[in-house]
Amino acid sequence: MIKLKIGTRIFNEEYLIHDFINHYLKLGADEIHFYDSSSTDKTLEIIKEISRNNERIIIVESDSNLKHTSYYVQTQICNKILKHAISNCSEEKESVTWIFPDVDEFLKVDNEYDFKTLISTSSEDILRTIFLEWYLPPRLSKTMVNPEMMLDLIESQELKGRILDLWGDPFYKDYIIRLNQRNIKKFAKIQTVAGFHRFILNKRLLIPPNHNYIVVNHLRGVPFKIMKQRTEKNIKILDDKDEWSYEHFSVIKNYLKNYASFYKNNLLTHKEIQKKLSLILPYDNDNSYFNNVIMKDNLQKLGYSKPSMH
Fold this sequence. Notes:
By secondary structure, the protein is an alpha/beta fold. The protein has one domain (3-293): Spore Coat Polysaccharide Biosynthesis Protein SpsA, Chain A (Alpha-Beta Complex). 39% of the residues lie in helices and 22% in strands. It has eleven helices and 13 strands. The strands form two sheets. Strands 1, 2, 3, 4, 5, 6, 7, 8 and 12 form a nine-stranded mixed β-sheet that branches. Helix 1 links the parallel strand 1 and strand 2 (31-36). It is globular. Residues 305-310 have low confidence and may be disordered.
């Protein structure tokens, strides 16, 4: 049976961390590896408490230098985690599938068996993901609904949301990768750009086929108090020269100014989202603005002057 390991970055994630761990353990994770950015709340305390009775929970490193201060720094940190994953797998006899979710990203699967069957039978070593970004309705946003309850509300089709895209590209992140003795040498120098949005190898973007994608429930619209704290936290630590990051979190901050209006006018019902999902597979990756234009900036920062597609 294939092994499943999770690698993630954390910084003051007290609200999400407990349910994040439980979710991926239920998914069948053999190990969850944490890179902590010197959290100042109870995040580490919660992780350590769980790890006392579960050796699958591993704190690899805790360092303030791991904070996401810019997209470029984020890429460096993610490549540090990716390098750790490759090194960790070098002595494994079994295939290991690594997933690199943020703590508000919950893979959607019916059960552990279905997921492990999919990743073990897939002909691709890299699987794509489609992100569904969910928000609590205004009446619930004022309560302290926990992440597990939010996931239940998603399943019962009681929340509104939207499909995240990258300038029209619906395949938001390629961060599920299978490593084994067959491909470990090939992937020894693989890197990731823009926070696990894409993998690159030998100056090429690795774009897997669109089939066999995994849906990720992204819990962006958590309780209003938590959403505000998370947004302000991220803006506070950003490098003021990083226009991408400021734009991203400033847009979220604007949602909070009139949340009821945003929820009513910008989001879709579960049925509307499912209809859009049915149209995604034929998407032409060669016409992706993100792949062809935006990614070049990230590749050049990593030293690739002439990035190409694969």
